Amino acid sequence: MYLGKEVIHNIFWCGGMDSTYLVCKRVIIEKKPIQTYYLNFPCDGYYPPYPLGRDSREVEVKVMDKLREMIIKQFPYTKSLFPRTILVDEFPINKEVYKKLRFLHENYQYRYRPRSQELYMIQYSLDENKIFEYSLEDGMSLGVDVGYLPTAKLLKENFTEDFTISTEKILELEVFKNIYFPIFETWRKDMVEESRKYDFTNILENTWSCRWPKPNGDICSGVVDYDDENIDCSHFLYVEFDKQPQSEIEDGFVRYYKDNEYEIIKRKINYLDILND
Ligand SMILES: [Zn+2]
């Protein structure tokens, strides 16, 4: 939303590392007003016939509340910039939008399934007729072993200097016209470095990315079995496993590489440790 000089940054937030970094970049570093949004319904494509729809929604909402509280306490000037997250209820998908996404899926390997949270983000941005920021980060282009997403490749190939997606080569990409990708050229290593510089590494350490936490609050094993399909959980996505001892990862110490250099942070492996901190 652009109001004269004052820009309110609309951000899709989920309490994970990338979107939380974007929130911190806007309110802590740039001191800009934001509005955060959370799609509060099964929207990740894992619902019937995949009955594993993001079990972690309730956890994510609580983690976001906690992170917001921590940010405002630590950086009091952010209070007026940072209203509570808008929890969005399910809404219908326009047929034409779905068709374009299916086209991108079938012709350019866009997403594993055409129906996904990105479809809902796109539809929501079009319905609201506002610019939304989506925190895809650059490390995804590292390769399939570290959670490479075909989506990232397609978008990367059509990425513009203005952090938008060009429709020059593929007209169907126009569905992204209201979505910006402000950290698509930022690596997680860069995020950790910036957070040290501005003193919010503790915020990144309290982000949560596991979609299928165990009943005791621990992160899942990393892979969820359903029928013949193994679904990778995103909680350790973009970690270069071969470069880091497994035991270190299990304790939550995560190295974020950029080439051979890395930054390490200790992420929480039980969400109750975040909520009760
Ligand atoms: Zn997990």
Describe the structure.
This protein has one domain. The two termini are 34 Å apart. The strands form 4 sheets. It has a 5-stranded parallel sheet with strand order 5-4-3-6-7, sandwiched between helices. Residues 144-148 have low confidence and may be disordered. The chain is an alpha/beta fold. The chain is globular. The protein is built from 9 helices and 11 strands. Bound molecules: zinc ion. The site of zinc ion (ZN) has 7 residues, from loops.
Compact description:
By secondary structure, this protein is α/β, with parallel strands linked by helices.
Topology, pairings included?
Blueprint: E1 2-3, E2 6-7, E3 9-12, H1 17-29, E4 34-39, H2 57-74, E5 86-88, H3 95-108, H4 117-128, E6 132-133, H5 150-157, E7 179-180, H6 188-197, H7 201-205, E8 223-226, E9 229-232, H8 246-250, E10 253-258, E11 261-266, H9 271-275
Order of strands, main sheet, comes to 5-4-3-6-7
Percent of sequence in beta strands: 5-15%
The total domain count is 1
Question: What integer value in Å does the Rg equal?
Answer: 18 Å
Which parts are unreliable, with pLDDT below 50 for 5 consecutive residues or more? 144-148
Number of strands: 11
Please, how many helices? Answer: 9
Written as H for each helix and E for each strand, in order along the chain, the element string is EEEHEHEHHEHEHHEEHEEH
Q: What is the overall shape?
A: globular
Query: What structural category do the secondary elements indicate?
Result: alpha/beta
- Span of the ends, CA to CA: 34 Å
Major sheet description: 5 strands, parallel
Question: What do the pLDDT scores average to?
Answer: 86
**Ligands bound here?**
zinc ion
